[in-house]
Design brief:
With 344 residues, the chain is of the alpha+beta class. The chain is 28% helix and 24% strand. It has 8 helices and 14 strands. The strands form 3 sheets. It has a 7-stranded mixed sheet, sandwiched between helices. Strands 1-2-7-5-6 form a 5-stranded mixed sheet. It has a two-stranded antiparallel ribbon with strand order 3-4. Strand 5, helix 3 and strand 6 (131-139) form a beta-alpha-beta unit.
Length: 344
């Protein structure tokens, strides 16, 4: 007698928090339901897309559901500006304009909404990008969690700077513009009252000036990515997959602040999977690495830039490994789901 396993009953499945985490569950949701419905074709999933018919114009959209609304180092307003500006920057673009949509829950104190809007406006002015249009909706109590923000950005690419997740090449140097793990651990600690927020603050900030500093290197800059949801681990895995290369990083070279390391040890988290909002990873041709590091370090937001690894000349396509402090190698997997929900 042959026993067959029943096929999965997809109609009984539901959306999980992990589907929004930027890891494997997110990829499955996109591939199975979202991309086919909108005629999404094959190819890398970038932080921003080229506007059809306007090859130098780039567009990106993002929604922010962070809880709590305010946290050390930032808030949902400044985060919404920085996140969209940074997505444009990862395609080599400077921001031209933003749109803003708000979904506000009935009962939100006007003082809180005003504080968010003041912060958002200040962040936009500091980034040099105007908010040109938007929309506001109010929903009943319990239909949202205080405030959700959506921003869409349009940008223009810098000359010959055309990075893509599919352009990484064997021999590339892997650069990181600053320490990791600050945003995710700050938001979690503030939300749960863990006490770490007195020692750390979110790194949320715009990165477009760092990208502008790399622009003179042009085609030597192959790939840029800001490691937000899923952290550095997700970003490296996405790039390795889309470029079909093997990437190796050095544990000793990855800057993890002591407070972040302590929080992750206590909570059983891997700093490589914790979200960031103010650093980026860059894959550049090996002979341009020194110049790229100098360019990053010339600005305050890149003062702690370091080289953390390389793209191997050969190896399993899509594989990311890390040489540990004791000299062994371990695989850096794509995160499965959401360890830290509602952080962006």
């Amino acid at each position: 007698m042959t026993i067959e396993c029943p096929a999965p009953r997809h109609e009984d499945e539901v959306v999980l928090l992990g589907h929004g985490a930027g890891g494997r569950l997110t990829s499955e949701l996109l591939d199975r339901l979202i991309l086919p419905a909108v005629d999404g074709g094959p190819g890398p999933l970038e932080d921003a897309a080229l506007l059809p018919g306007y090859r130098e114009l780039v567009i990106s959209t993002d929604s922010f559901v962070v809880s709590p609304l305010f946290f050390p180092g930032g808030d949902i307003g400044s985060l919404a500006v920085h996140g969209t500006v940074n997505d444009l920057a990862m395609r080599g673009a400077r921001p031209l304009a933003l749109t803003l949509s708000l979904i506000v829950e009935e009962g939100l104190p006007l003082a809180e909404l005003g504080a968010v809007m003041d912060s958002l406006g200040k962040a936009a002015r500091e980034a040099g990008v105007p908010v040109v249009t938007g929309d506001t909706k109010v929903v009943g109590r319990g239909a949202a969690d205080k405030l959700f923000v959506n921003t869409t950005g349009v940008g223009q690419r810098h000359g010959s700077l055309h990075p893509s997740a599919a352009l990484t090449r064997p021999g590339d140097a892997v650069l990181l513009s600053g320490p990791i793990g600050l945003h995710g651990t700050t938001v979690l600690s503030t939300r749960e009252g863990l006490g770490f927020e007195s020692d750390i603050a979110s790194d949320t900030r715009p990165l477009h000036r760092l990208v502008a500093a790399l622009a003179p290197l042009g085609a030597a800059v192959h790939t840029l990515r800001d490691p937000t949801r899923g952290g550095l681990a997700a970003a490296l895995n996405e790039i390795a997959r889309d470029s079909r290369v093997a990437v190796e990083i050095e544990e000793a070279a990855v800057p993890v602040p002591q407070a972040v390391a302590g929080a992750c040890d206590l909570l059983g988290l891997d700093p490589l999977t914790v979200a960031n909002e103010g650093c980026m990873v860059a894959f550049v041709a090996a002979d341009a690495a020194a110049g790229a590091l100098a360019a990053l370090r010339s600005l305050p937001e890149g003062a702690q830039a370091v080289r953390i690894g390389e793209v191997l000349p050969q190896g399993s396509a899509g594989l990311v490994t890390m040489r540990t402090l004791v000299g062994a190698r371990r695989i850096v997997d794509m995160p499965l789901g959401e360890q830290l929900p509602r952080i962006c």
